[in-house]
Design goal:
149 residues
Amino acid sequence: MARWLLVGLYVVSIVSFTTAHSSGAGYMGELLRKWFPHLSGSQIQALVFWMRKAGHVAAYAVLTVLIVYASRGTPRLRKYALGLGVVGAVLVAVVDEYLQTGLDHRTGAVSDVVIDCVGIGLALVIMAVIGARRGSPNGRDSFAENESR
C-alpha cells in the first residue's frame, strides 16, 4: 500500500508542477538569464529546451520505476508489473499534456509525450540491466518477492 501511495504522491507532484507558473519555459528562461548573463538569447533558448526535455525523460523514468516497484509488491499485479509501468506512465503523460492545453503558461504537445516515452523506455532498459546484473531471471525484483512472502 505504501508503494502505491508513493506513486500517487509522485503523480500529484507532476500535475502540481505542471500547473505552477514556474514550470513554464519563459520563467526558466528568465532565471537562466539572471544566473548566466554572459549567455546569448539563443544559448538560453537551447539550454531551456534541453533542460526541459531532460526533465521529461527523468520524471517519466522515475514514474515508470515507481509503478513497476509498486506492482511487483502487489501479488495480483506482479506478473503484469512491466506492462503496468508502461501503461500507467504513458497514461499520466497523456493526461499531463492534455491538462497543459488549458494553461496560459504551458502548451500541451504530442512531442512531449514521445519524449516521456523515451524516459519510460530508459527506465525499462535500466531495470533490465540491473535485473541481469543481479542474475535474477526476467529481471524480477527479488526484494519485492521476498517482502511479499
